[in-house]
Amino acid sequence: MTTKKDENMSFETALSSLENIVQQLEKGDLPLEQAMALFEQGLALSKTTQQTLQQAEQKIKVLMDKHQDAPLQDFELTQDDQ
């Protein structure tokens, strides 16, 4: 369930929070109820970040459609980017 708090969070903050939750869950030393609560928060943050990325992708597509003289090309990461 995505909350208003999650929706108002910046993408970077949401992603950082999600990474923190994953690290806590991977340790495996949390009580079950706390782990379940964190898991639920993680799902909400995951949904929020996915929606943000989808919105950004749609906006890029709209901008590219307006400026068809700039073709969209695949982006390849270099080792420095990874």
TrEMBL record:
Record-listed E.C. numbers: 3.1.11.6
Any one GO MF annotation of this record: exodeoxyribonuclease VII activity
GO biological process: DNA catabolic process
Compartments (UniProt record): Cytoplasm
UniProt cross-references to Gene3D superfamilies, sorted A to Z: Exonuclease VII, small subunit
Function: Bidirectionally degrades single-stranded DNA into large acid-insoluble oligonucleotides, which are then degraded further into small acid-soluble oligonucleotides.
NCBIfam families membership: PRK00977.1-1 (NF002137), PRK00977.1-4 (NF002140), xseB (TIGR01280)
Subunit composition and interactions: Heterooligomer composed of large and small subunits.
Protein name (Swiss-Prot/TrEMBL): Exodeoxyribonuclease 7 small subunit
Gene: xseB
